[in-house]
Structure formats: C-alpha cells, structure tokens
C-alpha cells in the first residue's frame, strides 16, 4: 500500500502553525527574500518552529545540482551566489533576536568550493551585527573539494558542523544516488581532525526500508569518525514524486534508538518521529 492510501498514525498528526510569532517569522523571511529548508523541503515542523521564532535558512539558492528521491527541493542549474544574501541573513537574525541560527544549503557541485565561501561570509557578516549569535552549519558533502572547504570555513568558527548521511548505505542507490556514504563519513572525519574542539553532527531518516542492524551500523560508523551529535527521525514523503514511506516507526522505537545512541557515546541525541537535523538544534544536551 502506498503512503498516499495509508492512514497516518496518530503520532504523526501535527497542527499547522499560527499566531503572532508565526506571522512575524513568515513576514520577516518574506520581506528579506530569504529561502528556508522549512518550505522548500515541506518540513512538517514548520508550524512549530516558526511559532517559536526559529527557521533554518537555506542559502545559495533553492535549486540543487542533485536529485535525491527523498527530497522535494528543486533540482537543475542554480544561479550564482547572491552577494547580498549574507547581509539579508544578518538582518533577519537581528530582527528576530536570534541566539542560535542553523544555516544549510542545496548541493552546489557547480562551484569550485561547493559553496563553502558563502557559508563563511554569511557567518562572518552576521557576527558583525550579533557577536553573541551561535551557528550550526548543515553542509553538503563538498564533493571533490572537502579539504578546500574545511580550510575556507575555518575563519568562521566556532560552529556546530553538520552533514547528514540521511539513510543506510544499502538504500543510497534509490534514495540518494548523487551521494556517497563513504564520502559523507570522510567529510565528518576530516572536520573532526581539523577542528577537534568542534562538535560534529549527522542525521538519519527511518522508514525507507532499512533494517535495525543497518541503522546500528550507521550509528557505529558515525561514532568511529568522531561524530558527536545525532538526529534520528521519520521519513515522510515531501511530494508526489518522492519515495513512498516503507514503514511508520513507532515512537517507542525512536526512544530505543535514543538510548542506543547515548550508549554509543553521542553527546547530543534527538530521536522522535518529527525529529529533523535542525529541529530543536539549539538544545544544549541529549534527550
């Protein structure tokens, strides 16, 4: 049975956002012409996050050079980086009085540095306006330029450095054909080696047909490359062209994975059906 014909379990029902803060967040982003992963990836947490005055900013445009089947972000030939974007992100952070900001981007395989320089510029521009602002970067895999990207990003520290493995390696051919599991692990390893004091983070989706031993192997692989933080959530089909959900995972199972992740040594864990890599990213400790 396809997801479209299957009834969502009660634990996956969530209200659409509303209220003064939701409206303020929407207005601020719209006025400044900023993209978010919340809208481009049809995230189910948008109402919750925007109502709390948080949003994950999508920099470097909303056209990805890859076409992962779990994702609804448009793919094609992106525009050049917008030099006004760092200042607009800084204005947003100041207007919304943020203390913590998550920045992410589409894959930019068209750029020699994979977009690392733009990440750096956004962080440094924001810090000029808000020196106290903390950052979390959720970056692509920087194919063919990982060492260069890490060098470019160094002046923008401190930040949490995130890169998502997304799913188990056996499902990459159908879910993430443009990615490479070992390349993703290598990026996290290189980041930890270059910046031993920087917290590194990854995320995995459940419900695509993975097995428990495969998930456990991913968690162990992430710890083997020094990954400190993990987010584990339910895959939900973001649009009609995306992969169907294979399984709806019960919340008790997510609790079990949270316990396992803690036992493996992750210092920060979020594991629930609605967990996404940037959901409640500002929380300082594990569940």
- Spatially, the strands of the biggest sheet line up as 1-2-5-6-7-8-9-10
Please report which band the strand proportion falls in: under 5%, 5-15%, 15-25%, 25-35%, 35-45% or over 45%: 5-15%
Helix/strand-derived category reads alpha/beta
What fold name stands as the CATH topology? TIM Barrel
SSE string: HEHHEEEHEHEHEHHEHEHE
The figure for the number of domains is: 1
Number of distinct beta strands: 10
Helix content: 25-40%
List keywords for this structure.
10 helices; two-stranded parallel ribbon; TIM Barrel; 287 residues; alpha/beta
Record the SSE blueprint.
Layout: H1 20-31, E1 35-36, H2 37-40, H3 46-51, E2 57-59, E3 63-64, E4 74-75, H4 85-95, E5 100-105, H5 116-129, E6 134-138, H6 146-153, E7 160-162, H7 172-175, H8 181-194, E8 200-206, H9 212-224, E9 229-234, H10 251-264, E10 268-271
Parallel strand pairs: 2-5, 3-4, 5-6, 6-7, 7-8, 8-9, 9-10
Antiparallel strand pairs: 1-2
Helix pairs in contact: 4-5, 5-6
């Amino acid at each position: 049975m396809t997801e479209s014909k299957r009834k969502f379990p009660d634990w996956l029902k969530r209200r659409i956002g509303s209220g003064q803060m939701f409206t303020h967040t929407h207005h601020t982003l719209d006025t400044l012409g900023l993209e978010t992963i919340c809208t481009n990836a049809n995230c189910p947490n948008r109402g919750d996050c925007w109502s709390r005055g948080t949003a994950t900013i999508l920099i470097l445009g909303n056209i990805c050079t890859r076409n992962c089947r779990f994702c609804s972000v448009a793919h094609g030939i992106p525009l050049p980086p917008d030099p006004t974007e760092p200042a607009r992100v800084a204005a947003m952070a100041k207007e919304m009085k943020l203390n913590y900001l998550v920045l992410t981007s589409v894959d930019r395989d068209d750029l020699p540095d994979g977009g690392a320089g733009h990440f750096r510029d956004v962080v440094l521009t924001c810090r000029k306006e808000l020196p106290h602002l903390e950052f979390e970067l959720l970056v692509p895999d920087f194919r063919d330029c990982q060492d260069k990207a890490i060098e470019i990003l160094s002046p923008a520290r401190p930040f949490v450095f995130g890169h998502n493995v997304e799913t188990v390696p056996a499902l990459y051919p159908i879910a993430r054909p443009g990615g490479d599991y070992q390349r993703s692990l290598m990026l996290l390893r290189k980041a930890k080696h270059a910046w031993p004091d920087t917290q590194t983070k990854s995320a995995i989706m459940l419900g695509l047909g993975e097995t428990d031993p495969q998930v456990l192997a991913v968690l162990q692989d992430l710890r083997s490359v020094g990954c400190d933080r993990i987010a584990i959530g339910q895959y939900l089909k973001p649009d009609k062209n995306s992969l169907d959900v294979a399984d709806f995972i019960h919340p008790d199972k997510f609790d079990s994975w949270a316990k396992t992740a803690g036992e493996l040594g992750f210092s920060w864990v979020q594991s629930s059906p609605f967990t996404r890599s940037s959901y409640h990213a500002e929380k300082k400790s594990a569940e």
